[in-house]
Fold this sequence. Notes:
Blueprint (H helix, E strand, L loop, with lengths): L19 E3 L2 E5 L2 E5 L6 E3 L2
Antiparallel strand pairs: 1-4, 2-3
Amino acid sequence: MFVYAGTGIDVSGIALGDDVEITGFSGQFLDHYEVNPRVPSDIEELP
């Protein structure tokens, strides 16, 4: 996952290793594939 600052999405409550479900655009940076959420509701923390 990569969150662009312009989305206004607060990721301070998400830590490495947390289980999340993400909806968004697919992207690639160099050889890394990523999901880019668009709005806060695109990220759902799982129990």
